């Protein structure tokens, strides 16, 4: 196998491991998952930190997100599409969260640029997610009461909150979609300002 393909295969095998184990990732884990000898990793990467940096770069790449978006069509009515969008964002954020922890760990060692690069890439992917949502919800422009870019931000905010492992939530993705579209007040409620 050519070195570029071997490198790509090792990075691909590393992504789910890095998501699951973060800084506890070892070259032995990667070698087993990639089906290569541990020494092969060091013929392709200078160090574990180098492998982690390459893995984070690939996990946060524009191409990877574009494929994920293409594989997640928004179908059904507006409520189903809103639920799917929140779920996609939540899953994406959960998958990159551990990557950030690993990037900060690498920053302590030999790759101080890893955390900043990861932050920059996530900001770019966030803008791409927002653009994707804005495009997909364009047919509903006349019935959504806020600008579509604000609606995308609202869905992202719900997804971030729901993805948080610090706060337990009894809200389901369906609940979040309904809240995003209809608010928390009953239509028949008389709400007065105090």
From TrEMBL:
SUPFAM superfamilies: Homeodomain-like
Key words of the record: DNA-binding, Transcription, Transcription regulation
Domain named HTH tetR-type: residues: 4-63
Coiled coil: none
GO MF entries: DNA-binding transcription factor activity; transcription cis-regulatory region binding
Pfam families in alphabetical order: TetR_N
Residue ranges flagged as DNA-binding region: 26-45
Top-level taxon in the UniProt lineage: Bacteria
UniProt cross-references to PROSITE patterns, sorted A to Z: HTH_TETR_2
InterPro entries referenced in this protein's UniProt entry, alphabetically: Homeodomain-like_sf, HTH-type_TetR-like_transc_reg, HTH_TetR
Name of the featured protein: HTH tetR-type domain-containing protein
Origin species: Tessaracoccus lapidicaptus
């Amino acid at each position: 196998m050519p070195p570029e393909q071997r490198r790509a295969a090792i990075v691909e095998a590393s992504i789910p491991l890095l998501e699951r184990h973060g800084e506890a990732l070892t070259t032995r884990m990667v070698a087993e998952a990639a089906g290569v000898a541990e020494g092969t990793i060091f013929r392709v990467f200078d160090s574990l930190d180098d492998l982690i940096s390459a893995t984070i770069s690939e996990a946060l790449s524009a191409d990877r997100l574009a494929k994920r978006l293409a594989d997640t069509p928004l179908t059904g009515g507006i409520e189903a599409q809103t639920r799917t969008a929140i779920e996609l964002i939540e899953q994406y954020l959960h998958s990159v969260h551990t990557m950030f922890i690993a990037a900060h760990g690498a920053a302590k060692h030999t790759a101080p640029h890893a955390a900043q690069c990861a932050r920059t890439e996530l900001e770019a992917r966030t803008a791409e997610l927002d653009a994707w949502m804005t495009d997909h919800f364009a047919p509903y422009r006349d019935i959504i009461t806020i600008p579509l870019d604000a609606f995308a931000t609202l869905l992202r905010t719900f997804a971030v909150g729901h993805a948080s492992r610090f706060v337990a939530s009894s809200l389901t993705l369906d609940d979040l979609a309904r809240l995003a579209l209809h608010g928390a007040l009953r239509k028949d409620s008389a709400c007065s300002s105090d």
